[in-house]
């Protein structure tokens, strides 16, 4: 009987060891403050994409648009438009990565923050040095892993999918938000 208990416990132990590690680094509000450190007001401006807009974004970015709705906030300071704040999700190796992108008024990247990371490996995409590679990038920039964006060993899929997400959101800005 005791041999049977060991056989049943082994799969449970393996399953427990294989679980992902989830970490919440930012709420929407704390990510907004990290991206726009000066006092800023945010007005929710969610975008419901039409099939035509989705297709145009996919063609421009070469990245699939998975959701019809994009979480967007318009940032203002003293009544003046200061940029856009977008919350997005991409798939890591197994789990969803929630991240935020702040765009300046000209559509260039101001900041990128990882809000929730649920994978066991690859959390290094939170490193400021890796995220800084995106600063100033605009729609049409190559944004190619191992070219203008350095890969992180052990986090290749997370790096690739966040990079693709930035490309997609920059295309969304140019095709939908700035009009």
Give the topology, please:
Elements (H helix, E strand, L loop, with lengths): L1 H17 L4 E2 L3 H8 L5 E4 L2 E2 L2 H11 L7 E9 L2 E12 L4 E8 L5 E9 L10 H5 L23 H22 L2
Antiparallel strand pairs: 1-7, 2-4, 3-4, 4-5, 5-6, 6-7
Whole-number radius of gyration? Answer: 19 Å
Question: What is the average of the pLDDT values?
Answer: 90
The number of helical runs is 5
Main sheet summary: 7 strands, antiparallel
Helix content: 25-40%
Shape category:
globular
> Helix- and strand-based class?
alpha+beta
In terms of DSSP E residues, the strand content is 25-35%
Order of helices and strands: HEHEEHEEEEHH
Low-pLDDT ranges? 12-20
Number of strands: 7
Report on this model:
35% of the residues lie in helices and 26% in strands. The protein is α+β, with helices and mostly antiparallel strands and 179 residues long. Strands 1, 2, 3, 4, 5, 6 and 7 form a seven-stranded antiparallel beta sheet that branches. Helix 3 packs across helix 5. The model is unreliable at 12-20 (pLDDT under 50).
Describe this structure in a few short sentences.
Helices cover 35% and strands 26% of the residues. With 179 residues, the chain is of the alpha+beta class. Strands 1, 2, 3, 4, 5, 6 and 7 form a seven-stranded antiparallel beta sheet that branches.
Features:
single chain, 179 residues, alpha+beta, 7-stranded antiparallel β-sheet, 26% strand
